[in-house]
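Following up on my earlier thread - several people asked me to post the actual chain instead of describing it. Fair enough. Here it is, all 252 residues.
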Amino acid sequence: MGWVFICNWLLLLIVAGGLHHWFYGVDGQGKLLKYDPRPYFKRKNALFKFGYQAWDNVYYSMIFGATFLCVLECFLRWSYAGGLINSLSFSAHPVWFIALFPVFALWQSFHFYVVHLALHQPAIYKHVHAVHHRNVNTGPWSGMSMHPIEAFGYLSAILIVLVLPSHPVHMLFLVYWLILGAASSHSGYEAIWARDRLALLLGAFFHQLHHRYYKCNYGNAEMPWDKWFGTYHDGSQDATKHTRDRKREMLR
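Reply from S.P.:
Thanks for posting it. Predicted structure:
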């Protein structure tokens, strides 16, 4: 169990910490490919715990986000070992073994949309999701910066392995998708630009718009949940007007 905690904490520290250092520590590419031109909060601000956005995000990410994920992973590893989960082997079911990866990706996308939509209900938002939305101008550490209740809701996507027969590698696929995908999609940049070329695609303009306009883009770009349910924002002025009109209607 100790190794699970150490590995996940180190992994988040390396990925989120490394991206933060490149973008906001050494200012590796300035505003190049940055979604929001405004500077990342470096001044003291009473809105954040300890007074600073980065410290606030690291605290919630490590204490709640990564820790809750480790607890769930340990429980599921124990369940696999004890036979509580129907284990699936590649040799016995090679087609289903491979098919489970896109199936779990689709499941995570749908789960995220539903949970995220619930978190935006006024009573829940005020006491829970508002912690995450302190980050209007996001950074890599913003991704897993969540209230404990939100962290459990977001990470509970991996509990699908209790229902569908799977292999521990499928569970780990979801673990790393959740923890590392959050750091990447909240980086605030489209990509890493180094040595005068695009080195690595990172960001999610789709989700950046959610942090900017709040009442839109609850899912992710991989699946058109928002288009189907009328909560899509494509970055245009018309979409901004539609989003603001819908928000006013909801507040009446």
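The chain is about 55% helix and 5% strand. That should answer part of your original question.
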